Amino acid sequence: MKLPTLPGRYWIVLTLAMxxxxxxxxxxxxxxxxxxxxxxxxxxxxxxxxxxxxDRPEYVxxxxxxxxxxxxxxxxxxxxxxxxxxxxxxxxxxxxxxxxELEPRDYELNLEIxxxxxxxxxxxxxxxxxxxxxxxxxxNDFHKAEIALRLARAQEEMAAKKLADTRVLAPFGGVxxxxxxxPGEQAGPGMPVFTIVRVDPVQVRVGVPEAExxxxxxxxxxxxxxxALGGLPLEGRVRLVGVAADPASRxxxxxxxxxxxxxxxxxxxxAEVRIETDDRVAALTLPAxxxxxxxxxxxxxxxxxxxxxxxxxxxxxxxxxxxxxxxxRDGIEADALxxxxxxxxxxxxxRVLATVESxxxxxxxxxxxxxxx
Length: 373
What we know:
By secondary structure, this protein is of the alpha+beta class.
């Protein structure tokens, strides 16, 4: 519809009149209509869990290295050319197994010569005994025959020992950690050619600080984990506690025995050790991520109140860390439900949709319709 042409002053009057009608309508609605919609409060989804009650032996946590139970460096006691070499590095050997052997012919000949000399000395000694009984030999000559016999027997034993020393045997059952000789090489006396390590059981060597050594004793249980093997916990026991501190590190050597029947633990691996002490830990703990800091830098957690379906901050005092959990020394009750997921999205008094850490919705208070929607 085409509006009529009016002077400018009439348009001003008409605009003011229309504005008055609108204001009146707004005023009427505000005073007469009680059903004006309000802005809905946002609900935040969070994960909650109860505080954990911790009651267990207190541990001394340490890091160390896996060592063989015993290590032997063995070699030939006599010189010669290597004729045969047995196991290679990594092979398992039993006590008395042949590791390597020299060419024995020279030592066999020396033994034959010594045996012949011993037989001659025995024959001369028999004749001297017969002559002595008939007073046909001086006592000094008889004494020389006795000495000659003893010398011949000792030389034969020495020759037999040297022949035996051409063979290197494993001193105990274990694994060959080093093989330092090959057939055809010339070996010298006393030169180590094999290193044998006993690996069942093994021991873990750790250094215990001076402040903790009084809590460690032989026979205490220990839990050993090796990161290289996936961190599977293994049972151990303290077998040795050092009596003198290392001058450089000021720590005391402690060795923990660990069974190793399948030989998965190998010398040189890094191990984490927790030694049980006679003290006990009685504490309330929460996951470390549940603890946040407020604007003042003070640590706190959010506690869920089921009857209100809201969370409220509680300032807490944090203590010792136990793995992924931290001790809560003060600030919450033992039966509190604490926000462990979504805590950075809530504020004081936020309405929440709470899910227990196991995955179930938190129950509403009685008479409120059961589970949260």
